[in-house]
Every structure is written in C-alpha cells, then in structure tokens.
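Hi P.,

Sorry for the delay on this. The queue was packed all week, but I finally got your sequence through. Input first:
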Amino acid sequence: MSMEEYVNAYYGGTLGISKRYGISKADDNIDTTALTNAGLNTMFGAKVYSQLNTKSEVFKLLKKEPWTQSGFRALTARATTTAGVAEGGAFPETDHPEIAEVTLTLKEIVTPWQMSSKAEILSESDDGLGNLAAFMRKENGEAHAFYIDSQLLTTFETDSDGSASGAGAGTAGVNLESLDRATATLAYATDGQNPSGGTLPAAVDMYSQDINTESWFDAGYTHFTDDGTNDALALADIDAGLAALLENGANYNDLVILTGYDTYQNLKQLMQASTGAGHYTLSSGGAANMNGVTGEAGLNFDSRVGAYDGIPIFLSQHVPKDGGSRIYLLDMSSLAMRVAAPTTYVDNTNLAVRQVLSREYAFITAGELVCYRRDTSGSIRDLLA
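Then the structure:
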C-alpha cells in the first residue's frame, strides 16, 4: 500500500489535502484499548519480585551439633557436706550431687509442595515463570528457613504443636522448642498479667521438666510489669538482667542480645544518649566482634551488628511483641540446634511410578532446639512500642 492509499484508507482525503490541512482524525482510532482486545497484551516476565522479608537469622545464631543422644544429664545440686574437722575428729556425713536426666524429642520440620505436569510444561511457554520447578525450590527453601526461625521464637503460651490454646503443652507438640519459652520464668507465667491473661505454670515447662518441682530448670531472669501495661525500655532493665545471669554463672563473652527492629531503635537512642562513650558501637563483617568479644560458632554471617557493653545485638522479625519487641539475653554456650538430619531437599518426580500427573517436593529438617541451662538466659518483656 502506498502512502497516499494509506492516508485515504485510514484518515480520509488525499495525501495532498493532508499535507495542506493536516491529517484529519479518524472516527475509529486504534488506541491501546483496541489493541488490548486485538493483540496488545501486558507481559510480566519470568522474574518475581518478592515483597516478603525472608531473613532467617535465629537459626544461624545457634551452634549446630549432631544428634548423637536423645537427651542429656544435668547437675542440679552440689554435695553439701564440705566442712572443717577438728583435730582427730570424724569426717562429716557423706553426700552426693543431684543429677537429673532430660529427654529430648526429635522434631521433623517439613515444607512440602506439589506441581502438576501441565503447570510445569506451560510455565515454559507464553509469559510463564520459566523453570517453575527451580522457582518453587528457591522460594520454598527460603520459606522453610523462615518458618524454622518463626518456631524458634514462638511465644511461650503457644503450645509447641503450633496451637494457641495456652495450655502449655511444652514438648508434647511437633514443632521446635522456643527461645521465648526458654527465657520465661515461672513467676512470669503465673503472674496473671502475661499476654494470655492467665496463670500458666505448665507453659514454661520444657522437655517434660515440671518447673514447679524442678526449679533448677527455670529461666534466669524475666522483666515484666505486673499490672498488664507496657513500660518504656530502660537500660537499667538490661543491666539488671545481665547481673542476674552473670550471678547464675553465665560467661560475659557467651552472651548475645536478640530483639526486634523497633526495640533496637529505642535501645540505640538510649545508648547514644548515655554518658559512656563507646557504650554503643557498630561493626560489620562476618564474625561478630565488638570490643574484643568474638562471636561463638554459629555467629558468622554478614550483617550489621551493634553491641551493648560489648555484647553483640542481633535482630529478627520474629521476636514477639507486647507493645514493642521483647529482648532476649541469651547464653549461647548453653543453647544449640541438635541436628539429626540437616535440611534436605527431596522429590518424587517419576510419573510412571506415581501414576499421577504431578510431582511432589519437600524440604525436611530434623532436630530440636536444646537449652542445657535456662538460668543463664533471660528476657525483658512488656515494653512500649
């Protein structure tokens, strides 16, 4: 078609007229609406831009150890008959230390998914995601780590099977044990002003140890209000907690602080306003190393790290909030992730064997959070946002 024929067909008139007077507007113009109906389609591309916070720092913090035993023994009391003896006197009565047996329950954490063969085929055509299997493996791998972190910080009044009954099932459930439970004292659980609004002594039991009778396995420190309100964070609360844990036998170099992003900002402002120069520091790099304190095994990951009097501060989106995020004072030498089977990717993709036009995949981690001592870790709760 010549230019003159084009003008006559679509704009009316002749090329000469259009040059002289300008091309006239057609009654039935081709716009984007017409093209959408007739061939203009939005392309989205294969890349998916995640809107989710996929950080999983808590699992990384914990040192890993192999599952070689399903329990441990704890020395709960010393022999008490050491005494002076007069010249020629008899020995004191003999005594023995108290040793308790603590049984762990192996937990298996599974992130499964399934894809039809048709979905996999069509994802490679048109405006699909491309390699759907690879996309799902990447996203579900991140989700697996995300939910492990979430379980490790489940609130103490939530049963470890994930329900929120507040009955305090302790280790009876199928999810991982929680640092929030490990750092909650019996006094806090029975105060009646905790988030559940009731007295829940069984909610702080761990590994079938009844804290009512086995007080040696109670947490070392919990700061909370006893009137159901939230208070502003004070550095004195952290100092009191650290003093209590150190008195119980915590090693200063083994301690870390874990909190949420909001409380960290409040803490940072308090520290920057404090008189002690160097009271607050920031460092970056692999191992957490502030004021000469090198992080324990398991602390090596790239992140911006603050320190409170030389104690590294780590952040997690999973830290529970009362008003503001809680603060955990953790003795990392007494905490570990005992692993029976490291995170493993498995699949069942043989359609002939399955006799179904779909494939199954999963990430599986087998282990349990182990807290060898609770009296050297604690928490600060009931904070304002």
